[in-house]
Design brief:
The protein has 337 residues and is α/β, with parallel strands linked by helices. Helix content is 45%, strand content 19%. Bound molecules: alpha-D-galactopyranose (GLA).
Length: 337
Amino acid sequence: MKLSKRTFLKSLVAVSILAVTGLNSNPVYSSSAEPIKLGFLVKQPEEPWFQTEWAFADKAAQALGNVQIIKIAIPDGEKTLNAIDNLAANGAKGFVICTPDPKLGPAIMAKARAYDLKVIAVDDQFLNAAGEPMTNVPLIMMAASEIGQRQGEELYKEMQNRKWDVKDTAVLAITADELDTARRRTEGSIEALIKAGFPKEKIYKSPTKSNDIPGALDAANSMLVQHPEVKNWLIVGMNDNTVLGGVRATEGQGFKPENVVAIGINGVDAVNELSKPRATGFLGSLLPSPDIHGYRSVELLTKWIREGVEPEKYIAVQDVVFLKRDNFKEELSKKGL
Ligand code: GLA
């Protein structure tokens, strides 16, 4: 009896020592064998895009040695700020983040500064209180305007392949203009369509309330019913889920795949659709480089922490591969995806 009480007390002491050292980020307590802990926070972990970033963050950590990635889903502002508290409590030295809302930028940076955590943004750029981009925070993102332009060019090309009459055709552009990278993609796409010769007045914009398939489906439905005269639709949107919402809406309203062309962006989020036994209105997807975003951001953050080398403030990744039903497996495996 006595013995077990003592053992119990001993273990209590051990637990509290553990808790104290676990919470203390003071370097005095960390031995050189302790790994560098880095957070990798993403707004929509259900998208394969972000799962790919996570997977390549882990690969970078392995290659660098003695680096540990703490992956956290941050669907809203509250979860984001809590995640930063938890990272600090766990002794992390910095984090990579795709924020659920760019306007959280100042709050995120204030917290990070208070804990002395280094920050690299991926995909979506922070905005300050005046709504301007926070260009002082290092950012890795896709070259949004250029990739959007490619979407517009490929849509136009496919319209010509199908020998559609422009008279019967319109563009449904599902927009999300509050998100700068989204606005730049859809504007790039629309510009390219106009440049190729598509009539500007037949490009119909419909804003989505949420960046997922249900939101885009609603946005598309409300536009489709306003234009019963249109026979063929080209669908523009900032990523795969957005144009997929558009495709689902055309199907719901009785359009055949022959009368719909949608091209997504992200690529990794298009695998299910491209694997379907029969083609839908979704022609394919432009795959940028989620692998590079995940890998590079961890590499740069680690170098910043270990060697004090500050990363470049802005890296725009321009590489893009056009995935279609006949090449997507091969192209994804070429990139190790
Ligand atoms: C935004 C979108 C994601 C993905 C990334 C790529 O965050 O919401 O789906 O396209 O950009 O940078």
